[in-house]
Design brief:
Number of strands: 8
Strand order of the largest sheet: 3-2-1-4-5-6-7-8
Distance between the termini: 36 Å
Largest sheet: 8 strands, mixed
Shape: elongated
Radius of gyration: 21 Å
Order of helices and strands: EHEHEHEHEHEEHEHHHHH
Length: 266
């Protein structure tokens, strides 16, 4: 199967890198089109991506991955829709554009898969949502999953949950980055170097995530296990509760969902 990328930005680079590190895709033909000749040359040298025009990508690839910014699509799609071939799989990672948006540009019967990765794809550990359009079969979804499993864990969800997924996975990583940073800065104020405190904070967060996903114990129980009565951790939990920690995170989540729905015109 031949793959083509329209746009070779950070996310496309992460995905192609994940593909090349996976034996099943190590020698797969990948074409790439980008307005930057310098970026295209880097991808050719690093990942053996064959430079191409958008027309050549659509004319050659079995699956085309749209990796451009959402605002570019209304200008781009009318210029390439005529090149789409029967049965060609279209995969998009653009936020805020639903399946009906793409199906309105492409010929009837074109299979479209909407995907939402997050920035952690850059280290091969993203949480990724997938949803197929009305012409996408199990085979099409499987083909998309095979690509994105090279950079993380995939979840098939209903399209009406994409805004919630944006908050749950796409945006929440920024909240997690802030948490790691703020804890590290507090550690630095307590006497550690910031670099050491950041390494410790990141390791603690990484281990905590692993406990939740692999330990077989729910988060609420884990909190109770760490919080000995009259001990140190319980005092920190009380301070978080007094500061409205849960409410603030819920407000942040809801703010992301509301903004995503606004951008989607929902």
């Amino acid at each position: 199967m031949t793959y083509g990328f329209i746009g070779l930005g950070n996310m496309a680079t992460a995905i192609i890198g994940g593909m090349r590190r996976t034996p099943a895709f190590a020698d797969t033909k990948i074409l790439g089109a980008d307005i930057s000749e310098e970026k295209t040359e880097v991808m050719r040298a690093r990942y053996a991506v064959q430079p191409a025009t958008a027309e050549e990508v659509f004319g050659t690839a079995d699956a085309v991955l749209l990796a451009v910014k959402p605002q570019v699509l209304p200008t781009l799609l009318p210029t390439v829709s005529g090149f789409v071939r029967a049965g060609q799989l279209i995969i998009s990672i653009a936020a805020g554009r639903d399946l009906a948006f793409y199906e309105g540009y492409f010929p009837a019967g074109t299979p479209v898969v909407r995907v939402m990765p997050n920035i952690n794809a850059m280290v091969g550990d993203a949480a990724i949502a997938l949803c197929g359009g009305k012409y996408a079969t199990e085979e099409h979804l499987g083909a998309a999953e095979a690509v994105f499993r090279t950079v993380g864990e995939t979840f098939r969800i209903r399209e009406d949950l994409f805004s919630a997924f944006t908050a749950l996975s796409g945006s929440s990583v920024a909240f997690a980055y802030q948490y790691i940073d703020f804890i590290a800065r507090a550690g630095a104020a307590a006497g550690f170097s910031y670099e050491t405190a950041l390494e410790i904070s990141a390791a603690a967060a990484r281990g905590s995530a692993k406990m939740v996903s692999e330990g077989g114990i729910d988060p609420e129980t884990l909190v109770k296990m760490v919080c000995s009565p009259g001990g140190t951790t319980i005092e920190g939990i009380k301070a978080l509760e007094d500061g409205g920690y849960r409410e603030l995170l819920t407000r942040a989540f809801n703010a992301v969902v509301a903004r995503d729905r606004e951008l989607c015109g929902v």
